[in-house]
Design brief:
25 strands
Length: 588
């Protein structure tokens, strides 16, 4: 048995191939009778699977990889067994759609993933085992009968770069079709899975180069053409890492022009310092909808350069790279738009409030940059500070549009001198009028399937003087009721429930006033906190929020906000299913 530990980086697959060939060479030299039955076909298949399994372990686990190769003589016929282990036992394998399942509990019934389909096709037996500290994928190759029909195994020298997608030697062109099925198709399938998971343009370029080197080429570079900017070279890779810097310096001197014509083109081999071997190079435009997103450059040493059958494979691969790059650019544009919208929806940073400490937690639903929850805290003149915590029915961009309207209206009314009740009355009337207009126009009060209703907690707080507490007036319109934590640890509700905004045009609202003594804290939350679910129960069942707040006695405003946030996330292992916002005001 031979075994070794590999680092979890891009060099692991190449080291694994060399290790396997060395192990087989040592067994052959030792005169073992089973080693005499090793053939070139078994060498190709085992090297292919070793490289696939190690690559999968590096990409999906990111840990060191343990590789074991052994001759199994306990069963008949004897066989070659390869085991690849990583140290991320809770990372499940890909499902049939190619999406990684990152649930905590591994599911041994999952057999998806192009790499495992390849294992099943080429090996005689295979399986997966889980231990507390590792996951192992193993495969077994039965040794052919020792009847002299097996060609002798050539194990000397470095393995060819084409072992992953093996190109048949010039003298044996009859194997072209077998190569296309066993090598090229599996390579393209696995490459598609890996590229589809990248949402950053530079990561796509880097992955593309590393997939081709040394599988198809000796070096690879990817140029990209950002809209309205100069060409960039985010990725250069060479089978000999010491040559990467030299290759980059040569390529950067003459960036290729964007070429919208499809198809690969042969170019001059870029000579670098120490290069004494000629070769062939290809330039393949990365086209999406007729526009050139970049150029894929690759080359292989040797007098023949890149054979014709490799050109077709590279063109197919380049189409996949171009699609992934286009998707990454689209994602980046959407992320930028969402970020700009979020900045516009969030209030500017609040400075120091005399006599009041404050803290805010704002977390839109996972995957969204903006949501239906919003908050605000601003000066309204005459020593008053106004605060608001609102929640639009629904979440995502549709809800965010209404949140973006409500906040500036609140500020305008408050600074015009309207009190708490008048602000709620006027905002409610505006929303109700909009709903009525929508009904008259035949579109109803729905956009994107979500009603335009709003729950809102709104109030004013006026510090008496530094270190002497504050006076607070507030009202809750269909919103979770605020809680006050006294300095003595007691918790009480600070408002009465009232109707949502936007439902009834004639709704009237009342406010409640009270004092916050020094050390008292006012907690305001959205229903993303109170209605956080675990099975059939909610976070605020049996006064769960009040219980957690009571345990915050002695904490500052920031400490209380963080304690509430942590308790909400810890309430269930599943991520929150709604936007979440917390506002804490504490009198000094």
């Amino acid at each position: 048995m031979s075994q070794m530990s590999l680092p979890g980086d891009q060099q692991a697959a190449g080291a694994a191939r060399r290790f396997l060939r060395t192990a087989l060479a040592q067994w052959s030299d030792s005169g073992l009778p089973e080693a005499a039955r090793l053939g070139e076909r078994l060498l190709d298949d085992s090297t292919l699977l070793v490289s696939e399994l190690v690559t999968n372990a590096v990409v999906h686990a990111g840990t060191t990889v343990e590789l074991v190769c052994r001759l199994d003589t306990r069963e008949s016929p004897p066989g070659l067994v390869v085991e690849v282990s990583d140290h991320h036992p809770t990372r499940a394998l890909r499902d049939d759609s190619g999406v990684l399942d990152e649930s905590d509990a591994p599911d041994d019934s999952r057999e998806g993933g192009r790499g495992l389909q390849l294992v099943a096709a080429l090996s005689d037996a295979w399986g997966i085992s889980y231990r507390r500290d590792r996951k192992t994928v193993w495969c077994r190759f039965d040794l052919p009968a020792g009847d002299g029909a097996t060609p002798p195994l050539s194990l000397r020298g470095e393995p060819p770069a084409e072992l992953i997608a093996p190109v048949p030697p010039q003298a044996d062109r009859a194997n072209d079709q077998d190569w296309a099925v066993r090598g090229a198709l599996s390579f393209l399938a696995e490459a598609s899975d890996l590229l589809a998971g990248q949402l950053d343009e530079d990561n796509v370029a880097l992955l593309a180069a590393q997939l081709l080197v040394p599988r198809i080429a000796d070096w690879c570079a990817v140029w990209v053409y950002p809209a309205g900017a100069a060409a960039r070279l985010p990725s250069v890779w060479h089978v000999e890492e010491r040559r990467i810097d030299g290759l980059r310096s040569v390529l950067e001197k003459s960036p290729p022009a964007a070429d919208p014509r499809p198809g690969a083109r042969h170019i001059v081999w870029p000579a670098t310092r120490g290069d004494t071997v000629g070769g062939g190079a290809l330039a393949v435009p990365l086209l999406v909808a007729g526009r050139c997103q970049g150029t894929l450059l690759l080359g292989r040493a040797g007098p023949l350069g890149l054979p014709d059958e490799v050109t077709g494979l590279v063109e197919d691969f380049a189409r996949r790279v171009a699609l992934a790059m286009g998707a990454a650019r689209q994602y980046a544009r959407q992320a930028m738009i969402s970020t700009v919208l979020q900045r516009g929806l969030l209030p500017p940073a609040v400075g120091r409030i005399p006599g009041i400490d404050h803290a805010v937690v704002y977390e839109p639903l996972a995957g969204d940059w903006v949501g239906g929850d919003f908050y605000d805290l601003f000066p309204a003149g005459d020593g008053r500070w106004c605060f608001a915590l609102g929640d639009v029915c629904g979440n995502g961009p549709e809800a965010a549009t209404l949140a973006g309207v409500a906040r500036p209206v609140l500020r305008l009314l408050a600074r015009e001198g309207y009190g708490v009740c008048d602000v709620l009355y006027r905002l409610n009337k505006a929303l109700a009028d909009e709903a009525a207009a929508a009904l008259t126009g035949g579109t109803a009060a729905w956009e994107g399937g979500q009603a335009r209703f709003l729950s809102l907690l709104y109030g004013e707080i006026t510090p008496y003087a530094p270190e002497r507490g504050a006076h607070c007036t507030l009202a809750s319109a269909g919103h979770p009721l605020p809680l006050v934590l006294g300095s003595d640890g007691r918790v009480r509700e600070a408002a009465s429930p009232q109707i949502l905004l936007g439902i009834s045009e004639t709704a009237q609202y009342t406010s409640e006033s009270f004092d916050l003594s020094s050390g008292d804290s006012l907690l305001c939350v959205t229903d993303g906190v109170t209605e956080r679910r675990r099975g059939q129960r909610q976070f605020d069942d049996d006064e769960g929020l009040a219980t957690v707040l009571g345990d915050c006695t002695g904490l500052g405003a920031a400490g209380i906000a963080e304690r509430i946030r942590h308790a909400v996330h810890a309430y269930d292992s599943a991520p929150p299913a709604d936007d979440l916002a917390v506002l804490v005001l504490q009198a000094r």
